């Protein structure tokens, strides 16, 4: 491929941690990209010791290795979107920010991963401020769930009105577009608030009774990045990502003794008649 020649398929880069159980993190991101017609590349920020029941330990990658993974990929091929997931320390956040400042940075979707589903802290307290200061200005979209949004605003969220208020306050932290995910609220439907700095849209979906929800946040943010890489605008990308992750949850896989993973290839499997 010649310099600056378009790829035959859109390319997205995920900057995140590895999930040894395969349901979240880098593994979920790459599966999502490929399922949605985007080629996935990765810069691994950490290796986790985890299964479907809990996270046992985290080993961060050296910051210079994270930095160099990112830069070397941009030197080789055009990248249409970046998804940032688990960056647990100030040093890693600084490495990611420095790398993206050195390249022609495309749209960035930031999933502010703070706590695992089993309750393991994945973001050091001092890193929260660095995340906002260094990575929010680079992001086109930030996708906090309710607990993450509460940390970011320093308050509680109990209903849709408070979700709207939180979206405004998070946007004021320096990011253009915000999606506050409402899956943690006790509501009949799963409600997400989408805000572009001016307009709100409410996305609703059927609440699915299942234990197999491991990696839903990673999958959703990666789906947004994939659709942005394919050229969809913000609202359309989020709408399509919502539909995709809802299908993946509905077809979740009962693997392991804890929270099983979503089924990233549910549509492809159905078309192939596998199951």
Concise overview:
The protein has 275 residues and is of the alpha/beta class. Helices cover 39% and strands 20% of the residues.
Q: What is the CATH domain class?
A: Alpha Beta
> Which structural class best describes the helix and strand composition?
alpha/beta
Number of domains: 1
Please estimate the helix content: 25-40%
Number of helices: 9
Main β-sheet, in a few words? 9 strands, mixed
CATH architecture descriptor name: 3-Layer(aba) Sandwich
Shape: globular
Gap between N and C termini, in Å?
A: 38 Å
Beta strands, count = 9
Strand order of the largest sheet: 3-2-1-4-5-6-7-8-9
What are the segments in which pLDDT stays under 50 over at least 5 consecutive residues? none
- Give me the CATH superfamily: Ribokinase
Strand share of the residues? 15-25%
Q: The CATH topology, please?
A: UDP-N-acetylmuramoyl-L-alanine:D-glutamate ligase
Give the SSE order as H and E letters: EHEEHEHEHEHHEEEHHH
In quaternary terms, these chains amount to single chain
Protein model, in words:
By secondary structure, this protein is an alpha/beta fold. It is built from nine helices and nine strands. It has a nine-stranded mixed beta sheet with strand order 3-2-1-4-5-6-7-8-9, sandwiched between helices. The protein is globular. The relative contact order is 0.16.
């Amino acid at each position: 491929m010649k310099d600056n020649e378009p790829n035959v398929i859109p390319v997205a880069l995920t900057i995140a941690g590895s999930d040894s159980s395969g349901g979240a993190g880098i593994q979920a991101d790459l599966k999502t990209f490929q399922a949605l017609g985007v080629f996935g590349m990765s810069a691994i920020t950490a290796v986790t010791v985890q299964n479907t029941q809990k996270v046992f330990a985290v080993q961060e990658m050296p910051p210079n290795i994270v930095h160099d993974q990112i830069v070397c990929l941009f030197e080789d091929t055009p990248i249409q979107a970046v998804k940032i997931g688990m960056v647990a320390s100030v040093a890693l956040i600084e490495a990611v920010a420095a790398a993206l400042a050195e390249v022609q940075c495309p749209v960035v979707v930031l999933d502010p991963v703070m706590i695992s589903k089993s309750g393991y802290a994945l973001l050091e307290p001092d890193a929260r401020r660095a995340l906002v200061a260094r990575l929010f200005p680079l992001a086109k979209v930030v996708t906090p769930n309710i607990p993450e949004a509460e940390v970011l605003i320093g308050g509680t969220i109990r209903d849709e009105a408070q979700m709207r208020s939180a979206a405004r306050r998070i946007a004021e932290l320096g990011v253009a577009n915000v999606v506050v995910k409402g899956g943690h609220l006790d509501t009949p439907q799963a409600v997400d608030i989408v805000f572009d700095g001016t307009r709100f849209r409410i996305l609703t979906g059927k609440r699915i009774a299942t234990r197999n929800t491991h990696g839903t946040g990673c999958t959703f943010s990666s789906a947004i990045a994939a659709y942005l890489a394919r050229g969809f605008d913000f609202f359309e990308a989020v709408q399509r990502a919502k539909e995709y992750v809802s299908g993946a949850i509905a077809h979740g896989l009962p693997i392991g003794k804890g929270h099983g993973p979503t089924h990233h290839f549910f549509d492809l499997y159905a078309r192939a008649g596998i199951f």
